[in-house]
UniProtKB/TrEMBL annotation:
Taxonomic source organism: Zobellia galactanivorans (strain DSM 12802 / CCUG 47099 / CIP 106680 / NCIMB 13871 / Dsij)
CDD domains: PLPDE_III_DapDC
InterPro entries, per database record: Ala_racemase/Decarboxylase_C, DAP_deCOOHase_LysA, De-COase2_C, De-COase2_N, De-COase2_pyr-phos_BS, Orn/DAP/Arg_de-COase, PLP-binding_barrel
Pathways per UniProt: Amino-acid biosynthesis; L-lysine biosynthesis via DAP pathway; L-lysine from DL-2,6-diaminopimelate: step 1/1
Name listed for the protein in its UniProt record: Diaminopimelate decarboxylase
GO biological process per UniProt: lysine biosynthetic process via diaminopimelate
Keywords on record: Amino-acid biosynthesis, Decarboxylase, Lyase, Lysine biosynthesis, Pyridoxal phosphate
Sites where the protein binds pyridoxal 5'-phosphate: G218, Y356
Residue ranges constituting the Orn/DAP/Arg decarboxylase 2 N-terminal domain according to the UniProt record: 23-266
Amino acid sequence: MNHTDLLNIAKTFGDPVYVYDSGKIISQFQRLTNAFGSVKKLKLNYAAKALSNVAILKLMNSLGSGLDTVSIQEVQLGLLAGFKPESIIFTPNGVSLEEIEEASKLGVRINIDNLSILEQFGSKHPNVPVCIRINPHVMAGGNSNISVGHIDSKFGISIHQIPHLLRIVEVTKMNINGIHMHTGSDILDIDVFLYASEILFETAKNFKNLDFIDFGSGFKVPYKEGDIETNVEELGKKLGSRFNEFCKEYGKELTLAFEPGKFLVSEAGHFLAKVNVVKQTTSTVFASIDSGFNHLIRPMLYGATHRIINISNPTGRERYYSVVGYICETDTFASNRRINEISEGDILCFKNAGAYCFTMASNYNSRFRPAEVLWHEGKAILIRERETFEDLVKHQIDVKDLFAQKKEKALAK
């Protein structure tokens, strides 16, 4: 997919618009699979929260992926996309017992991350196999909001609570079929990840009927030129070898599971937006686009970097711009960024827009959420229509009669 293809998509489907390259998703899936080629039983469970459009879920299902879900709605989307219940794992955080029971009734695998719900669920449903999410107390992640394995994290059951966990399992007679961890996103140091894995292996020895060990994900992808990324090939070689050793010690061929999200879809995504205004102040040149953090919040929320390319003028002279949105508060995508010269009406392309971009979009300022397009085998396919005013008010209730009555009473006085 080149600049001309992207410009044609913006012209055909309007802007702003999200575009996803299926070829990149497929190659990333194959890359991760190949990295762990030494493991006999490997299962990649795509993290639906990264990008949950049903068309993307169907693509993942066609590749043989499982599905990692964090809400009952994601479970339902997975079933709608054709995933078999047993290929979906439900890994929520802080949800009610009722939601976990609802997911269990749908036949998906259950992953529980706190002692309270574990005891309640095990007491009521001792025959339902359960995976346990462990907090290894290992810090990983590029931002405090996405580091979830440290000691102060709300995620997982602390390794220091293993004795309590084992008492619950013994008393309820529940069946523990999996052990899981997730240290956080943007893993940079493979050795830190391998250290956390050893904690997981040690924990797994306490359970005799395991079917799988889930090592989470969080593989870092490059966000700018020269950016570092997780060396999944090296990780595959080292962790794959260690996992095979553990299976021999355990006396059973277990499944090695991962739940990649960003790794699979981030680089496949492009966000296209038009420049409304080029505005020069005493110190800054602003390029204001027809979008805002209502469509792409990561730069404002995480301080995330997205490369921005002027695909209308890719060979023009580079100048410094602050790219901002139309939301009525600070709404900055990039500050003093070198971009090929921008004119009003140009289309800017935000790279790495596949993960946690559309899924975090909102209707803030009563703006419509954009369309989504899949680029597949050389064709642009609309997979979500742009919202309209009718969508904005669809679930709102008209209370005009209520206020009409109050007005009549006021006039009567």
